[in-house]
Design a protein that fits this description.
disordered N terminus, single chain, 4-stranded antiparallel beta sheet, 6-stranded mixed beta sheet, alpha/beta
Length: 382
């Protein structure tokens, strides 16, 4: 009897062991693929996913200046009077304004010893900046440059602080890191709220020495951030007249700071505009090339190219008083510009985008920024 019970116990234990071992096996399922049922297609492994590509295109804004045949600003146009095209495709205007959007300025001043004789006149222009350019509702930051680039004042609406920063501009060394200073100004403006118009005003010679940044890259970033560049071109010749006596240069055909023919109505008279009239310079083409290649200009006036590329204006100076006049002209235009904004649609998102603006009213002279550059698409982050 005891032998039979032992046999039963062994059999029971063996059965329990087999049951426990079989449980996980049933949970795991059979090894290898099951044969497909009749009429059901064989499931294929998922295809290898391609990386997502994204192109970010924000609202594009362009300032538009409109003048009549006498050069006077036209201020009574409506949104219906404008048509805007991006790479030849007409766009829907999402935002329209005439001088009413809040303004953010970065004022960039050359403080190189090469313009030492002109610096008193530049300092004297402080009140013109606050009264006619920045205005009661604007804000401004101040940057100075020579061998170094120095942030002299953060953004503020305080007129006294802005004037103090300009009237106390320090004299620096002989270098002129113009492009680096413009780059810093673009960086400061890029971080301002999107609802503000962003304007860079440069008071300097059209000369750069030692900058790490390229003009084309600076202008490319300015275009993408909807920044307009205005320039007051200081005259090295004027500085030399007021500085220590030097050997005179060969006489020019016309007196310094003047031109041999009357200006085109409605067009500021500068060395580059005169060269363009004579067919000797394609400044717009040079500016577009610099933006596309993120490079410096091969030739031409860097300040005028910056203004042309962003829809602004460059005014060269010679006499002390003309510095204040140039700043006053810039202030008058800034507060009388139309702003058109749209989201690009119907064209290739990458590469250079050409902007064209038309006004339905005949006989008007219209100026706007020529375009912007979008680099190759970036991979979307997972």
């Amino acid at each position: 009897m005891m032998k039979r019970l032992n046999t039963i116990s062994v059999v029971a234990l063996l059965a329990l062991f087999l049951t426990a071992a079989a449980g996980p096996a049933r949970g795991q399922g059979p090894v290898g693929p099951l044969p497909p049922k009749p009429g059901v297609p064989i499931q294929k492994p998922p295809a290898k996913q391609k990386p997502d590509i994204s192109v970010k295109v924000d609202l594009v804004s362009t300032p538009v200046s409109v003048r009549d045949a006498n050069g006077e600003l036209v201020l009574n146009l409506t949104q219906g009077d404008f048509r805007v095209f991006d790479n030849g495709v007409e766009q829907k205007i999402e935002h329209f304004d005439l001088g009413g959007d809040p303004l953010s300025f970065v004022l960039v001043f050359e403080t190189s010893s090469r313009i030492e004789a002109l610096l008193p006149a530049v300092r004297k222009s402080a009140i013109v900046f606050t009264q006619t350019v920045v205005g009661p509702n604007g804000e401004a930051a101040v940057v100075g440059f020579n061998d170094t680039v120095d942030r002299l004042l953060p953004f503020t609406k305080n007129e006294e602080e802005i004037e103090r920063a300009i009237t106390t501009l320090p004299m620096g060394q002989s270098g002129a890191k113009l492009y680096d200073a413009m780059s810093q100004g673009v960086g400061l403006l890029r971080n301002r709220p999107a609802n503000r118009r962003r304007i860079l005003v440069v008071v300097a010679e059209a000369t750069d020495t030692g900058s790490e940044d390229k003009l084309g890259q600076v202008l490319r970033e300015a275009q993408l951030a909807n920044i307009t560049v205005y320039c007051v071109g200081l005259s090295t010749t004027a500085a030399e007249f007021r500085g220590p006596s030097k050997q005179a240069a060969p006489p020019a055909i016309s007196p310094p700071g003047t031109f041999g023919q009357p200006p085109v109505p409605g067009t500021p008279q500068t060395p580059t505009t005169e060269a363009q009239r004579e067919g000797n310079m394609d400044l717009l083409g040079a500016a577009v090339w610099a933006v596309q290649h993120a490079a410096n200009l091969v030739r031409g006036n860097a300040l005028e190219a910056a203004a042309v590329a962003t829809g602004g204006m460059e005014l060269s100076t010679f006499h002390d008083r003309s510095i204040e006049d140039a700043i006053d002209n810039i202030g008058g235009e800034v507060h009388a510009q139309y702003t058109l904004a749209y989201r690009p649609a119907g064209s290739d998102p990458t590469g250079y985008h050409e902007i064209k603006v038309q006004v339905t009213r005949p006989g008007l002279k219209v100026r706007w920024r020529p375009g912007y550059y979008l680099g190759p698409p970036e991979r979307a982050e997972k």
